[in-house]
Amino acid sequence: MKTAPTSRIGFRMLRSALDMLRDRRGLAAVEFALIVPLMLMMFFGVVEFSSGVAVDRKVTLVARTLSDLTSQAPSKVPQAIYAIVTDSYLQNVFSASISIFQPYSAMPTNATVSEIYIDVNGKATIQWSEAATISSDAATQATLATSLHKPGDVVTTSVPPTLLTPHTYLIWSEVSYLYTPTVGYQMAAVTLRDVAFTRPRQVVCLIYPTNSPLLPPSTPTPSCPTTS
User: Fold this and answer.
1) Under a CB-based contact definition with an 8 Å cutoff, are residues 154 and 164 in contact?
2) In this structure, are residues 147 and 90 in contact, taking their beta carbons and an 8 Å threshold?
3) Which pTM was predicted?
């Protein structure tokens, strides 16, 4: 007596299951919900990586510009073998170089420019060094700071061997930039660095004056050694 109703119930359940398998309503919504998070991660990842590459390129340009502008300091004395660079001159060089970061913020930038002398033995020694930072996004001028390099520091290992020509000077610029991604979970903050070397263009060497507030008053004015 119970066989027919049981068969009908089983048939209905089977038909309902088949109807569910054939039903495609909501399939697009489910696929969208599954794919969108992955697509967003890929999109922001590409954007952050592209911005990081652009900023890294600007770090390279800033390093080259800083070294190049400093090396072009002219002498105010006819036939002089040296030129004097002042705090004002270096501050303008730093400011002009760091403005290259636009439209990105230049505030996480730390820049240093140094003069190196290579002696007869190929030893590279710091003659003077100056650093600068950007205090805020609204700042239009770089702020001079004390460099980590001191006069007399030996930096031979930091100079490419092909540039270690005896009795010559080099202008060495160093730039570091803390790149912080907008979407933090895609990339971690990374410090981008680059350096550049140029030789003084119009004179043998550049002299940093004794009246600089970053040098002790008793520091003698350096000269351009060319035979030591």
Assistant:
1) no
2) no
3) 0.75
- Looking at this protein, which amino acid is placed at residue 132? A
Distance CA 207, CA 10 (A): 98
Strand arrangement, sheet containing 143-145: 143-145, 124-133, 109-118, 168-179, 190-198
Q: How far is CA 104 from CA 98, 141, 161, 178, 188, in A?
A: 10, 16, 34, 12, 18
Q: Are strands 143-145 and 168-179 parallel, antiparallel or unpaired?
A: unpaired
Tell me which long-range contacts 223-226 makes (C-beta under 8 A, separation of at least 24).
223/82, 224/81, 224/82, 224/169, 225/117, 225/119, 225/167, 226/81, 226/167
CA dist., res. 67 & res. 191, Å (int): 20
Report the relative pairing of strands 143-145 and 205-207 from DSSP bridges. unpaired
Cα 119 off chain centre by: 31
Strands 82-84, 205-207: pairing kind: parallel
* pLDDT tens digits along 41-95: 777 777 788 888 888 999 999 999 999 999 998 887 776 788 888 888 999 999 9
pLDDT in tens, 197-209: 999 998 889 988 7
CB 113 within 8 A of CB 69: no
